[in-house]
Specification:
303 residues; EmrE-like
Amino acid sequence: MKSSSQSISPILPLLVGMIAISFAPILVRYSDAPVSVQGMYRMLFTVIIMLPFGTKQFKSIGAISRKDWLLLGAAGFFLAVHFLLWMASLNYTSIASSTIILSLEPVFVMVGAYFIFKDKPNKLMLIGMVVALIGAFFVGSGDIGITRSAFNGDVLSFLGALAVAVNMLIAKRIITRVPSYLYSIIVFAITFLCFLVYNLAMGISMLQYPVKEWFVFLLLAIVPTVFGHMIFNWLLQYVKATTISMSVLAEPIGSSLLGMLLFHEMVTGFQLIGGAFVIIGLLLYLRSEQSGPAPEPFSQSMP
């Protein structure tokens, strides 16, 4: 730990990051552009913003092996799939349901780490996983009773969480060999290219949008990405990864409150019950990290 870290108070940056990531689904809702276009420009603008801050690290690109380039490509692809599915879910289901289900990502990472890295979960982790999955079932069951499309949106969010879990498992394997800045900017650039190819293949317009849409694209890059996830990455120098994971759990709460305020989306009883189960389950899971040797999960989802 750096000595300078003693003068760093994580409270304000954590609050900024928690508020920032809560705006991701709100901004997606405000845009009328296809989600693949939103995702493409979010990644493009994020890469442009990142470029000036790590030019010295670009000389290390030549040291990246062919195998690691393949892993970076896979990470970018699955991140694009995550964005495509999760952002699309917001067209069908409520912000509360979508973000609650998306927060299951650490559970999927745990399962994947068990099969891929042989990381054995302890009893508390397993209890947390079961409780969280029960909560997701409550959310989905409640949405079946509302509309069929709401349930379809929950499924899209669920699949989006699976996709970002794969992305994080790849990061777990490669991050020890590729500097985090290079990893992030390369993966974001590949994600942008995946969206570009998808939009070209589907014949989706990428330029004919009003000023409002370009403003939303830019805000998606600045608010939830730069002031959200990049702040969390910076804070890892000063606080435990578990602290960051705990703060990310505030996203469903913040997003749901904003959804109620801005879109008049009232939270149903099933969402309240299911959301409580998911958050309790994830708290148990994160608590297990402090109770003994456990796998180091990548629990920052990318809304």
